[in-house]
Amino acid sequence: VYSCDSDKSRKLSEGNSERLAEFCTQSILRVFPSTLLVNSENLESRLFWVYGAQIIGMNTQNSEQKMRSHLGLFVGSEDGYALKPALLRRPLAPFDPAKLQLPASIARHVVVEVISAQYLPTPESMRHNIIDPFVHVSIDGLTVDTKKLSTKAIENNAINPLFEERVAFSVYCPDLAVITFLVLDDSRIGDNYIGQYSCPVQALQPGYRHVPLLNKEGMQIAGATVFVKVSVLDSAQCEEHPFPAAVSKIPQVPKAASSEKAVADKLSAAIEAVSKHSFSLEDRVQTFLK
What we know:
The protein is an alpha+beta fold. It has seven helices and twelve strands. Helix 1 packs across helix 2. The protein is globular. The model has no long low-confidence stretch (mean pLDDT 81).
């Protein structure tokens, strides 16, 4: 086991990236926060995960965004461990993120339609105001995969803000990528934290999903969710269905007639059809006597 702080590990990754990746296929590397980090600030754990580091120390008393994204890598793990991807376990052909040449044909395309949110809490500092929420969607992983996109803010709506925007990402190495849904309150002074959820990109399930939101302490906020539709496409599928822009509006489908009106129209048609073929009781009796 080799231990070093984040500053030394970063220098190793910049000067000897291939050797560092190879070292992590045969030995255990433990990275801990630099002593120069004040106020219990955390390091960017993804910078070391991508080289195969097995243990990364984090300041758990600090629940900042870096810590929450770090924990997202272990979502779905029952015992707190996560298996390194196969490309980080090959001693004969070590993975070198610094010199990675990836063809566009292997990219996975993640499209998230951010439809709405439900029952968003109001920060303590804004108890007498109504929030203007927006959703910040980001992917952390390899440098080529790391990207952040945001929806527009919806004014004065914490109960059911309707975003109806679509964000799209190209992910070359989903095994090392974490997606984060961060809900913030738009403010001129500084955006206020509302809730957040992170998980591995590989854990995304296609279709409509309610994403639960967690507070800064990592506890689920009762009733607070973001309603999304997730699509994961490969390059061949994108040739059939053009890949959308990074941020775009969800195409609107023409609204169908309301269900009540449709039922009423069908009932009127049925009554009219029956009336054309119905007979009074007197007509029926006369027909029977004949």
